[in-house]
Amino acid sequence: MQIVNTPNNERYINIGGNFEVEVSKEKAIQNTKIITPENTSVSYKKMTKKVEEVKVTPLQIIAKITTKIDDVSLQSLSSTRNENYIGLIDFNVYDDNNNELSSCQYEIKRNITYQDGKTEEWATADIGTAKDFKNATMYLTEYVIIEKKDNLDSIKIVPVERKITSYGEEEKNILGEMIVKLD
Questions:
Q1: What whole-number distance in Å separates Cα of residue 51 and Cα of residue 178?
Q2: Rounded to 5 degrees, what angle do the CA atoms 29, 33, 39 make?
Q3: Residue 48 in this model has a pLDDT that exceeds 90
Q4: Is residue 73 within 8 Å of residue 97, measured between CB atoms?
Q5: pLDDT in tens, 64-78
């Protein structure tokens, strides 16, 4: 046994030996409940976010969220002064009693379809071009990984826009609620 200090003033104990954990994709699939929720979308400006699917696994809850933004231009993506600019979107997640659940989010896909019909896949969380364009449509696919607690009947996913004002202060704007029944 060895006690180790880390640079962040944390400690961990290194214990020799090993253990085995049996992992089975088939068992995980058998123990996962897939929910296709209804009426779980939020619209803001020219953007619509929708919970497409929720997977309740033995360890966590995974929500797939798609986003469609219409009438996208380089200015609406890059200029905070543009009336159609949308700041960063975070997801807060709550249980039936309005207690916040731990969660993390990942954008995994970002596509844009230009006015001429040409489609490009951009790097996630990035503006993939410097050329001027307008009247495009952007599609995002995001996942929110949510803490699973016992006896959850539903979860509430709340998209929150964050942006920095011209005075350098952070401004938050709750965009609505998407409630998913888990039973």
A1: 7
A2: 135
A3: yes
A4: no
A5: 999 999 999 999 998
For the segment 106-159, what is each residue's pLDDT rounded down to a tens digit?
999 999 999 999 999 999 888 877 789 999 999 999 999 999 998 899 999 999
Share of the chain above pLDDT 70, in %: 99
CA-to-CA distance for 172 and 161, rounded, in angstroms? 6
User: How many CB atoms are closer than 10 A to CB 171?
Assistant: 11
| Nearest-angstrom CA–CA distance, 75 and 68 | 17
With vertex at residue 176, the alpha carbon angle to CA 45 and CA 180, rounded to the nearest 5 degrees, is 125
The encoded tokens of residue 128 equal 């993939």
Q: What string of DSSP letters covers the chain? A: -EEEE-TTS-EEEE----------HHHHHHT-EEE--SS-EEEETTEEEEEEEEEE-SSEEEEEEEEEEEEE-HHHHH-TTSTT---EEEEEEE-TTSPEEPEEEEEEEEEEE-TTS-EEEEPTTS----S---SEEEEEEEEEEEE--TT--EEEEEEEEEEE-TTS-EEEEE---EEEE--
